[in-house]
Structure formats: structure tokens, C-alpha cells
Amino acid sequence: LDKTGDNKPKKIIETLQDVDKKRAYQLAEQIDPYNQTSISLYGTQAQSKLMNFSASILDHVKSNNIGEIGEIITELMKKLDQVNPDDLQVEKRNIFSRMFGKVSRSVNEILTKYQKTGAQIDRITVRLEHCKNTLIKDNAMLEQMYDKNKEYFQALNIYIAAGEIKLEELHTKLIPELKRKAEQSGDQMAYQEVNDLIQFADRLEKRLHDLKLSRQITIQSAPQIRMIQNTNQTLMEKIQTSITT
Question: What are phi and psi of 112, to 5 degrees?
Fold first, then answer.
């Protein structure tokens, strides 16, 4: 809170760790306000990498095999439904049927059926084990993607912080000083230099707006990646429960 009790949003530079603050100040010094074309490229490298990264996340979601896993588990449940342990309890059968040799299925026939069903279940569980291993690898890759997304977030923060430092310098120091000199000298070319700096500051402010939009993508991507990981983890647990059953 400031003296009036109002909340003041922290500047980006204040949220950075010391090593990133140092990089931001160094980057701010490299921004040349007399090079109008350079500002159009400011931060574009990080934006380009982020764009490719976002596309890879989208491709990953599209190729997700959750539907296939669900179908395999459903197939397993159907096979399990065919197994009735009561069939093995001979004493529960109708004693008169056994006396007159009208028993429809012998214990051996039941066991044969179970062996056949068991073999089918075994094949399904092998497929589920494969799916589980794929999900484990998938989550490991997603963890790497999460870390990479965090790197892009931090990189964009440095670019934004550096730009804000330079923008403040332009508005509070460079432009006022040059304007004073122009007024004192009356040199029309000096006035043009002031206008050039004002134009540069406007362009820099627009670039910072674009970079903040890109940073928002990283903020949104983090929970999306975690959501996919949690879904995978839930599936892994369901697969393990199904196999154990």
C-alpha cells in the first residue's frame, strides 16, 4: 500500500530474482532509442519459440490416446463380467440334475472356459501395461514441457522489465532533456529528434503490450499442462486397478 492506502501494482523488475534483474538492466542498456527499426525485433525470438512451443502442446492434446485406453478398459470389464466364481462351487448345483447325469457343464468345461477367458484377459492387460508405460513417459515429457514453459515466462518477463526500464528512462529523462535543449537552442532539427524519441517510446510501449500478451499464453499453458498430467495420472491409477482386479 502507498501513503494514500491504494494498492500499487508491482513493477515487473521488482518481481524478478537478482540474476534476472541484472540481465534486465543489461538488456535495457542495449536498447538503442535512436534505432527505430530495432524495436520491431525486440523480444521476437522469445515470441517465436513460444509460438512453436504452443503448437507442440496443441499437437500433443490432439494426439492424446485417452479414448483408446477407455475402450481397452471397457473391453477388460466385459471379459471380467463373463467370470462367475459361483460356477466352480459344485455343491450349489441341483443335486437331482447331477443324479440323472443332466449336468450341462462339468467342472473341466468351466475351467476350460476360464482358461480361454483368462488368456483373453492376459492379452488385454498386456495392452493396458503398454498404455500405462506410455502415460508414464508422456507425463515425464509433459514435465519437461512445463519447465520449458516456465523458462519462456521468465524470459518474457526479462524483456518486459527491460523495456519498462527504458520506457521510464525515455519519459523521465531522455525526452525531457532533449526537449529542453531544443527549446534553448531553437534548433528545428533538435525538435525533430524529440519527436523521433517520442515515436520510439510509442513503438516500445506497443511492443511491450505484445510481449505481455505472449506472456499470458505461458500463464495459461501452465495449468493446461498440469491438467493433462493429472488426467494421465488418473488413467494410470485406473489401469493399475483394472489389472489388479
Answer: -60, -45
- Residue 207 CB partners (closer than 8 Å, separation 6+): 39, 40, 42, 43, 163
DSSP-derived secondary structure for 35-67: -GGGGGGTTHHHHHHHHHHHHHHHHHHHT--HH
Backbone angles phi, psi at 166, to 5 degrees: -65, -40
Summarised one tens digit per residue, pLDDT across range 36-70 is: 888 888 988 888 888 877 777 767 666 666 667 76
Q: 215, 245, 194, 241: which is closest to 43 by C-alpha?
A: 215
Q: Which cell numbers in the block locate residue 81?
A: 463380467
Q: How many helices (H) and strands (E) does the chain have?
A: 8, 0
Each residue of 109-155: pLDDT tens digit? Answer: 767 777 777 787 888 888 888 888 888 988 998 898 899 889 989 99
Query: Which of 130, 127, 122, 135 lies closest to 236, judged by CA?
Result: 135
- Radius of gyration of the chain from its Cα atoms, rounded to whole angstroms: 34
CB 240 within 8 A of CB 76: no
